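Hey, I'm writing a tutorial for new members on how sequence and structure tokens pair up, and I'd like a real worked example in the thread rather than a made-up one. If someone can provide the structure for the chain below, I'll link this post from the tutorial.
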Amino acid sequence: MASKGNASLRAARQALGFRSQTALAEAVTEAARQIGLRIEVASRTVRRWESANPPWPHPDHAAALEALFKRPVTELGFSPPWTDEMGDERTGQKFGDTRSRLPLRHRGFGTAASHLPASVAQEFATITASHRRLYWSTPAARLHRLVADHAQFGFELLPQVSSAAETVLARAVSESSLLAGRLGFFDLQQPELAQPSLVLALQAAHEAGDSLLGAAALAHMAFAPAFSGDPSRAEEARERLRAARAFASRGNANSETMAWLDAVEAEVETRFGDPRRALALLQHAEKIVDEHDSESHPSPEWFDWFSPVRLAGFKGNTLLLAGRGREARETLEQVLTVLPEGDTKQRSIYLADAAAAAVLEKNPELACRYLEESLDLLARNWYATAFDRIKAVRHSLTQWESLPSVRELDARLYDWHTTVNSLVG
């Protein structure tokens, strides 16, 4: 009598020498750590995977399984929950929701017969580059749907292109997924949208053999635990950054990339209560950025979210969270002076931070002026992260609520445009 259960996974497990489900659980956990994912797989999870009707693995679990077995999960006895190309109305899927539409692999990278011309990969990459440029000036919610769908489309094309074109296409898929993750986390403030996109970005970077994109995906994964407000997640964020640094080193990252990793780590350490460590990291970042030679060792084109000016912005925020109001305000004012006019999202953030610094200096009128400027920018280009910082500063102005400047700020903060945008994102 044929044995019941997931015979494909059981056979693959035994082929690798894992005699028990517990041994496989430990191996998958270790494989996850090697690709920068901090998960613990229990033997009962493996037991469900080897059952007659195995559930589709969580994205992190799927990434670890594929890293361990070197094959797509669809070849390990798992059937994806999406079985057709039905639209949103039929599936009941929420607008822009990528949680179930962004599997790590659809039919497996490079497993189907190639029949698309090599030019498809370059054409796809051209659209990816356009989305990258649109990020700085278009509404986030609409762009997120476009980018997430684009990444999914490229993902499905991967098995159909030649091996020569696969690297170009996988790299573009990784970049698109990374952008979708940035939009989900920073612009829409929905970490549940960002995580599967970042995992897909990491997996596609692996397929492309691009360690720098892998480092970028891993470093972005550190933001969710850092911003969670949960001290128990500190090691999770730090482990993602250790993995990101290992990938960056493997990819011969230039000093600008390493400075960005310093800045991300500084953000993590600041939010977990170690501003001294954060400022030391930023000092190191400033040093290596000053030594960076962009002509001999340029950064990738997709690495467009970091510069010496934005490093100074990181420093201003760290000084602010360390309670050093005057230094933070002076630093941020210098940043605002040299920040390019087109960087409206970052300008709205820096204005909100400068306002918070003014509150520390007990200067509510100046704080309100900065917040009004930030709201002017949000009226043209909504940015949820900036709005949250504005609200936090307004809360700190409670003792000055009777001032005309604070009342005028409230009139702006709760006008039709701002209120509706804050609710629909």
